[in-house]
Task: structure prediction
Amino acid sequence: MQYLKHDVKENIIKAALAEFIEKGYQDSSMRIIARNANIVMGNIYRYFDNKEALFNALMGPVYDQIAGTCEKVQHEIEELQGPWEDEQAMTLIKQTYEQILKNVSGRGMELLILLDKSGGSRYEGTKKELIEQIRNILEIRLLPEMHEKDVFILYVVASAFVEGICVILRECGDHDRREALIGSLSTIMLCQISKRV
Amino acid sequence: MQYLKHDVKENIIKAALAEFIEKGYQDSSMRIIARNANIVMGNIYRYFDNKEALFNALMGPVYDQIAGTCEKVQHEIEELQGPWEDEQAMTLIKQTYEQILKNVSGRGMELLILLDKSGGSRYEGTKKELIEQIRNILEIRLLPEMHEKDVFILYVVASAFVEGICVILRECGDHDRREALIGSLSTIMLCQISKRV
Amino acid sequence: MQYLKHDVKENIIKAALAEFIEKGYQDSSMRIIARNANIVMGNIYRYFDNKEALFNALMGPVYDQIAGTCEKVQHEIEELQGPWEDEQAMTLIKQTYEQILKNVSGRGMELLILLDKSGGSRYEGTKKELIEQIRNILEIRLLPEMHEKDVFILYVVASAFVEGICVILRECGDHDRREALIGSLSTIMLCQISKRV
Amino acid sequence: MQYLKHDVKENIIKAALAEFIEKGYQDSSMRIIARNANIVMGNIYRYFDNKEALFNALMGPVYDQIAGTCEKVQHEIEELQGPWEDEQAMTLIKQTYEQILKNVSGRGMELLILLDKSGGSRYEGTKKELIEQIRNILEIRLLPEMHEKDVFILYVVASAFVEGICVILRECGDHDRREALIGSLSTIMLCQISKRV
DNA sequence: CATGAATGAGGCTTCATTCAT
DNA sequence: GATGAATGAAGCCTCATTCAT
Result:
């Protein structure tokens, strides 16, 4: 009964995503997931060992995608020579997120959960990882010019940027519009940033 | 009389703040708060009627401060005539947060909880209120120049800005440094923003 | 499926009735009900949403029966013309309770709980409703003849009568005997009552 | 500080009576009693060892009065010779309650609590004792004439009568009116009762 | 494979009572 | 004598998970 199993699994996943988005990992209820998946409580455990496993099964692939993208970007960063231009940093960041968005296309929900609703799970650090990478990029570009300035602002800006991404994911479902908004956000926050730090 | 009360109350408040910061209002456990305050569960209820009352007692004053500041700013906005400059918008926003910070000085934790960890409580809308006000300011300044552009970006930017504020609150305890960081954040995100939208 | 449910539900109901009878709704303990039903506390909530729902599930049907009967009697009252005889009042009252008893046959326990142990529940007014109806009947018959007398005695008598009913329910399980006792009680308290007020 | 102690004790007693009347022994709260007595929680235990002792201290004297009266009546019963008349039974009962009422004059509240709100305390059987005595009187008078009839009705009538007394106590505060109502109740329920059994 | 009943720990809260001051 | 803080058990309820069928 492979086909049935598959159906049920799909239902569970759909219901789980909705629940995780609505309440976050920690406050989500297996009971409610089961109910909305039209299956019986205990049965959910035939498909996923427990709440954590269910969450990980949904988030894992998306997380891996993100991690992969980030790693690739990391390599690019390490290969880039000489003093950077603002433009390079901005483009790097923008392209990272365009890439992420494209790679997880159709799984924006998971991405959002990963970034904003994963408290209590093994993925709760994801947002921080992304922020760190942006901070790193900004630091490479701006540190040499900051002199006495408080470098911590780079972490702040990186966080703000990622939050902007989260808002875009949360409130806007259309892929093209998302891309445009990411572009705008990048421009507003990062274009010629060295002049404003 | 009251031979210990004050101490215990302090302990409860300290433990509660730590718990609220860590888990948010909803996921906080009275049991754990009591344990960390070194008192027995039931005893907490001598000091605060219930979880909600405890939360409100801590958050209320800070919320009122914020609300007051925002109202004042709202009046300023309504009195400002003619077409705005970028500078005006930025200054308004920056000063709002400098003001808030100053007024809640020493209670940055509460402010952070209010903004980021108040889900499920009566204060869960606070962050949104702040964001909306910034969005409103940005709209007044930028809407006339956005033509075909997607206005939603203003909401995104406002959210990102407030997140930046949260990060500053979360990671930095020194008042002067906070103020400087708010200044930097404002400059980076809002200075001459009309040229970048 | 449901391989045990019915049994357990029966056990809960039995234990609950016993507990309600013994302590009344308000002082009844879910813990004790569960213990006497030989199940674990939490499990009771699979069968009934909460204490109130459990109580209402047991009492609802019986209450509805009573309410229905009373309504019917109320209509009869309104249709009866001219000055009443003692006999009419007595018969009306007697028949009301014979009817009630017959309709809730086999659920005398619930009826008794409803009348005497429902404090704190939505049914706590039941006894008063019954008393009021009897008082009303007595008033229709006797008020014209009471002149200067204290009408409050009618309420006292009505209350005493309903208490008699309760005792019959409490102490006597046999249907026929109950009916006979209701007859006797009616005769003793109401037969030619106009001569004794 | 005898005078102070006395005052405080009075306050406790007043508050306790109000609480017991309102909620009954079992559901009464020491906290609320203390609060309404304007003293501090723990302090109540200097005056009364515990809730039970407090209740007993208030009820004891009244209970003893009742018990005394009943005993006296019991003696009268035992001395009455020959076959009784209805009138004798009725008068005995009526006078019992007039006597009780007179003896506890000014403590009708306690009497009511004893009869109706003492569940869970050592006095919860008081009502039953009174009922039994009335039942006994009725039995002496009526048993010889009941032949095949169900004697249990005598218990029912006795219970109804006592309930009537309770209602009078509960709803009517005036001594003379109470006495009149007891008279009426006796007449209605007991006058020439042998003709109606 | 599926069912849904059972479990046990934990959630918040109230209470009578005791105890240190 | 008085204070009011502390205690621990019990109240109702929910939840993730397990298990017998």
About this structure: Residues 1-48 of chain A form a domain with the Arc Repressor Mutant, subunit A fold (CATH 1.10.10.60). The radius of gyration of chain A is 19 Å. Chain A touches chain B through 33 residues (CB under 8 Å). Chain A has nine helices and no strands.
